[in-house]
Amino acid sequence: MKTISTAKSHDGVQGVYSHASEACAGDMTFAVFVPPQAKHGPCPVVWYLSGLTCTHQNVMDKGEYRRLAAELGLIIVCPDTSPRGENVPDEKDNWQFGCGAGFYLDATQEPFAKNYRMYSYIAEELPALIAREFPADMKRQAIFGHSMGGHGALTIALKHPDRFKSCSAFAPIVHPMVAGWSKPALEKYLGADETSWRAYDAVALIEGGKSFPEFLVDQGKADTFLDDGLRPWLLDDACKAAGIPLTLRMQEGYDHSYFFISTFMNDHLRWHAERLAK
Amino acid sequence: MKTISTAKSHDGVQGVYSHASEACAGDMTFAVFVPPQAKHGPCPVVWYLSGLTCTHQNVMDKGEYRRLAAELGLIIVCPDTSPRGENVPDEKDNWQFGCGAGFYLDATQEPFAKNYRMYSYIAEELPALIAREFPADMKRQAIFGHSMGGHGALTIALKHPDRFKSCSAFAPIVHPMVAGWSKPALEKYLGADETSWRAYDAVALIEGGKSFPEFLVDQGKADTFLDDGLRPWLLDDACKAAGIPLTLRMQEGYDHSYFFISTFMNDHLRWHAERLAK
């Protein structure tokens, strides 16, 4: 692991790091905030997965998580959203596919199967690195994210209910199999057989029997992607049918941006901290 | 005035606007956060002046001022740092001069005198626009800033002690006449006669008899610009000699970045809110 930068912030350390990733067959960059409490012992880990077009940097700059994370003693890990680099296949004019659009899945189709393995990266490789390199209490982990990253948080939590004590999302893509802006990506990464897509779709996972203790979702009502890409009511239906408690808060006037995310960041961090303390 | 964007944030509105500026002979962009309290009446105005290379956007993205401004009921105005545009003379390879480096002064030298009039812009033209277009209580104003913007805040406050109820700064350039990274700019904007520079230098203004009720300054001790560019002890000396109370906090381990600024943003907003309430 290579340290790209560190800066003191809110009495903790905001760092940016890179490492050679086996899962993604290339260098990956990520950000970690370590709170001041880590001087005295391992701290719980909260994973934040970002949305389409983002890197680790968007939430690091605009997410406004450090003040409360420093107060609550939370390590915040912010990975990149896809593999990147000269040898990574990409569609430069398509913001919904390729670089910046890894969809937290393991691609099976060529030429993407070699690098686009964000599911294995986030679920297996990066946690091992975090456990090794940071003062992290890996018995206490939580996960959340925004948009495509909300999709990532929901699906990864549903597959690892024993690992994560809590899961929440800002404006998640809850049913990417049917959403206009994600369906083409699933097809290119996973092939035409839609049954293979269900492993990376929160609604389909719940329909298929996966479960989680409870979810918190915030969704802006002025989000221009609400009706086509996001449709949180589909998650609400699936959770109701499966008996999973979902706190879905439709927020009047808020859009899809980090102005929305940062407004409700503290609510989510408190939600996680309460459950991590149990 | 043209609205470029607005987004709901912390129950207020973060907007970006542009207008044809007479002072700068061209279009200028700025950001304004209006807190929810403005629905019920005019709110006090806090001016944040940014540092070298910044636009209105850096602090809007990374300053983390909205949560507390929304709680305290403060309008936050974040102007650009210089004129910009095709017809504005610039030195593209020099980050300490030209675009992004207006130094909050009125240039007298050609070819800069036409556009580089940030003092008149911030002290006269933009306040008139804010008073006209926003629910602003112009009888209650405060000013602060970072680095070059800290210099701007200090000098403008010293010239307008009756307008501003409070002034603070993050890592300000307190004595630009003698600092390596600002002296060449003063010479190019104002000419070789150093007596003309004193009107835009906090230490020189205080030595010349200008005063202000009190200042708050935070300075990171790990700031790489501390010894050459910033030297807050020179302000401390000048304030002591003039009997101006200065709260100078040297912050262990903090650098010059927005990770530093956002850490102490709430302290500064509370400092201003207390004095604006008097």
Automatic annotation (TrEMBL), chains A, B:
Keyword Nucleotide-binding (UniProt): no
One Pfam short name: Esterase
The protein's enzyme class: hydrolase
The keyword Hydrolase is annotated on this UniProt entry: yes
Active site, per annotation: 147, 223, 256
Catalysis performed (reactions): S-formylglutathione + H2O = formate + glutathione + H(+)
GO cellular component: cytosol
GO function terms (MF aspect): carboxylic ester hydrolase activity; S-formylglutathione hydrolase activity
Top-level taxon: Bacteria
Annotated GO biological process: formaldehyde catabolic process
Keywords: Hydrolase, Serine esterase
EC number(s) per entry: 3.1.2.12
Role noted for this protein: Serine hydrolase involved in the detoxification of formaldehyde.
Family: Belongs to the esterase D family.
Protein name as catalogued: S-formylglutathione hydrolase
Organism: Mesorhizobium zhangyense
Gene name of this polypeptide: fghA
